[in-house]
């Protein structure tokens, strides 16, 4: 078989980071990549991982990846899956690898009884938008993604330290 989709395993962190950097280059966001292989290794293979990764291999070569995590919908009362990153190297595009990665995770959703499968796409990325729509995805223009990070996150978090939360005790 030419295509294999497999779960990332310890030792794959440098490969995952390579894919992340390639995706960031494509999205014109390379300046935002702060992760290193050690951080990726800890996130994916630490004692309680909260993020997961599938690697697509085409004829034995790493061709693409999908990095994802579980979400929860209060409206559905069920977990879902959020696809953080999907990337296929340019030389491997057009062989169905991106579609196979999407289908693999959709299969996980169905098998686990998850209620949603979601991801984001940059509004200027017409080729990806067309690809996702061709797979049955519905683009949700009424939802805007919000983000708090860096110093703004520190300021917001400092207004209600964890040790003061009702029902929680500081370590």
Which consecutive residue ranges, at least 5 long each, have pLDDT under 50? none
- What is the CA-atom radius of gyration, in angstroms? 18 Å
Number of contiguous helices = 5
Question: What is the mean predicted local confidence, pLDDT?
Answer: 91
Q: Write down how many β-strands occur, each being a DSSP E stretch of 2 or more residues.
A: 5
Biggest sheet architecture: 5 strands, mixed
Spatial order of the strands in the main sheet? 1-2-3-4-5
Shape: globular
- Summing up helix and strand content along with how strands pair, one would put the structural category as alpha+beta
Structure overview:
The protein starts with a strand and ends in a 13-residue tail after the last helix. The longest helix has 16 residues, at 97-112. By secondary structure, it is α+β, with helices and mostly antiparallel strands. Helix content is 33%, strand content 23%. Strands 1-2-3-4-5 form a 5-stranded mixed beta sheet. The mean pLDDT is 91.
SSE order and pairing:
Elements: E1 3-7, H1 13-26, H2 37-45, E2 52-58, E3 61-73, E4 78-88, H3 97-112, E5 117-119, H4 126-134, H5 150-158
Parallel strand pairs: 4-5
Antiparallel strand pairs: 1-2, 2-3, 3-4
Helix pairs in contact: 1-2
List keywords for this structure.
171 residues; alpha+beta; 5-stranded mixed β-sheet; 5 helices; 5 strands; 33% helix; globular
């Amino acid at each position: 078989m030419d295509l294999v989709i497999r779960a990332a395993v310890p030792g794959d962190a440098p490969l995952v980071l390579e894919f992340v950097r390639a995706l960031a280059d494509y999205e014109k966001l390379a300046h935002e990549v702060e992760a290193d292989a050690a951080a990726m290794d800890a996130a994916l293979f630490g004692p309680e991982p909260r993020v997961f990764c599938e690697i697509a291999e085409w004829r034995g070569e790493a061709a693409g990846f999908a990095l994802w995590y579980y979400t929860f919908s209060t409206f559905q009362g069920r977990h879902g899956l959020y696809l953080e990153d999907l990337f296929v190297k340019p030389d491997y595009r057009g062989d169905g690898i991106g579609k196979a990665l999407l289908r693999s995770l959709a299969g996980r959703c169905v098998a686990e009884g998850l209620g949603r499968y979601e991801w984001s796409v940059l509004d200027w990325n017409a080729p990806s938008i067309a690809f996702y729509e061709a797979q049955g995805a519905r683009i949700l223009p009424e939802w805007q993604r919000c983000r708090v990070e860096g110093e703004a996150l520190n300021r917001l978090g400092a207004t209600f330290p964890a040790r003061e939360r009702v029902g929680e005790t500081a370590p």
